[in-house]
Design the sequence.
C-alpha cells in the first residue's frame, strides 16, 4: 500500500492506494515522488539505508553530456542548463535548499573543481577556462582562444592545470597541445596527482603522458590497448591511475612499473563491463562505478565488489562524485540532484 500525505497551507491531505505487488508499489512511489519534486518539494531521508537516497532535489532539466557539480564548504555547486543564452550554477545546501543562483559567463559547464586553499572554483565552460572567486563573487576568464573543442580542468595540491586547445597550462606556464579526431571524438583529459607534482595528460590513443609540473618535462608515458580515456583518477598515494575508457570499463596502471594491472574484483558484475562514470572517495576505501541507471560499490582496499543500487530519477546516465567518505552526490540527466548513503 502506498500512502501519501501532503500539507498545503496547514491543510493536511492523506490518500492511500493498494497495489498487486511490491515492485508496482515502488514504481508508483517513485512516480509520485517525482511529481512532488517537480513542484518544488525536497525529499529527505536522514535514516536511509545503504544504497538509498538521503536527499533528492529537482534542479531543472539535465543535459546528458554535461552534468557537473562540486562540493565546497559553501554548499554544493550544481550546473543547470538554461536557455540558449544563459546557464546557471545552483548552490545547494546540505538540507536541499537552493541558496544561490549564479549566472555563468558561458554555456555548458563541463567541469567544476574547488580549490580549498585559494577558495576558488576552476571551471571548464564550453571549452574555455574560468575561475570564480568567492570573495569577489566574480568570474575571470583564463583562456581566450579555441581551435578544436578540447579542454580539461584539474586541481592537485597548490597546482592548477587546464587546457583550451591549442594549449594547456600548468599554473601560469603555457604548453602546446596537439589533439586529433578519432572516429569523431577527441582524446583529451587531464588529471593532477593529489600533491600536484605530476599531470597525467591523455591526448593520444592508448597513451597517458606523466608530466612534471615544476618544469613541464616528461616523466613517463603509460601505454595500453585502450583507445580514448574519458576520465583519469589518481589514488591518494599516487601509486595507481584508474583510466575510465570511453565506451569501456576501468583500466588500472601502476606508476612504479608503468604497467597495467588486472583487478578482476573491481569489474562491474554481469555481461557488460562498460562504465558510465566512476569516482573514489578521499580515503580511497570505496570506488563507485555507474552503468547507465545503476551504481556499483566496491571495496577498493580489498579490491572486491560490495553491492549495487538503482540511480533513481535517471533516464540513461548520471555523474557521480563523493561528497564525503560515506555519501555520494549524483546528478542525473532527468534533472535531479541526489545524495546517497554509500557507507
Sequence:
Amino acid at each position: 500500500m502506498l500512502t501519501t500525505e501532503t500539507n498545503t497551507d496547514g491543510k493536511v491531505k492523506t490518500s492511500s492506494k493498494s497495489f498487486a505487488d511490491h515492485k508496482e508499489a515502488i514504481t508508483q512511489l517513485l512516480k509520485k515522488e517525482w511529481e512532488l519534486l517537480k513542484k518544488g518539494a525536497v525529499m529527505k531521508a536522514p535514516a536511509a539505508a545503504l544504497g538509498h537516497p538521503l536527499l533528492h532535489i529537482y534542479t531543472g532539466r539535465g543535459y546528458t553530456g554535461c552534468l557537473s557539480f562540486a562540493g565546497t564548504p559553501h554548499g554544493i555547486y550544481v550546473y543547470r542548463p538554461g536557455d540558449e543564452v544563459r546557464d546557471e550554477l545552483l548552490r545547494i545546501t546540505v538540507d536541499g535548499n537552493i541558496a544561490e543562483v549564479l549566472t555563468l559567463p558561458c554555456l555548458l559547464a563541463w567541469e567544476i573543481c574547488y580549490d580549498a586553499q585559494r577558495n576558488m572554483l576552476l571551471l571548464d565552460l564550453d571549452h574555455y577556462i574560468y575561475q570564480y572567486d568567492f570573495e569577489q563573487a566574480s568570474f575571470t576568464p583564463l583562456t581566450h582562444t579555441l581551435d578544436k573543442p578540447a579542454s580539461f580542468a584539474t586541481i592537485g595540491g597548490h597546482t592548477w592545470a587546464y587546457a583550451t586547445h591549442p594549449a594547456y597550462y600548468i599554473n601560469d606556464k603555457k604548453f602546446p597541445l596537439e589533439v586529433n579526431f578519432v572516429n569523431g571524438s577527441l582524446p583529451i583529459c587531464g588529471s593532477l596527482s593529489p600533491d600536484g607534482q605530476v599531470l597525467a595528460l591523455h591526448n593520444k590513443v592508448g597513451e597517458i603522458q606523466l608530466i612534471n609540473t615544476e618544469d613541464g618535462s616528461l616523466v613517463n608515458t603509460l601505454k595500453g590497448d585502450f583507445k580514448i580515456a574519458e576520465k583519469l583518477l589518481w589514488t591518494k598515494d599516487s601509486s595507481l591511475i584508474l583510466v575510465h575508457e570511453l565506451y569501456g570499463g576501468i583500466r588500472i596502471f601502476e606508476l612504479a612499473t608503468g604497467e597495467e594491472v588486472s583487478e578482476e574484483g573491481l569489474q562491474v558484475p554481469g555481461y557488460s563491463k562498460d562504465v558510465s562514470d566512476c569516482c573514489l572517495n578521499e580515503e580511497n576505501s570505496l570506488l563507485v562505478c555507474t552503468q547507465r541507471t545503476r551504481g556499483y560499490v566496491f571495496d577498493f582496499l580489498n579490491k572486491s565488489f560490495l553491492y549495487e543500487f538503482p540511480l533513481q530519477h535517471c533516464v540513461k546516465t548520471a555523474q557521480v562524485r563523493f561528497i564525503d567518505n560515506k555519501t555520494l552526490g549524483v546528478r542525473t540527466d532527468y534533472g535531479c540532484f541526489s545524495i546517497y548513503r554509500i557507507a
Notes: The chain has a mean pLDDT of 93.
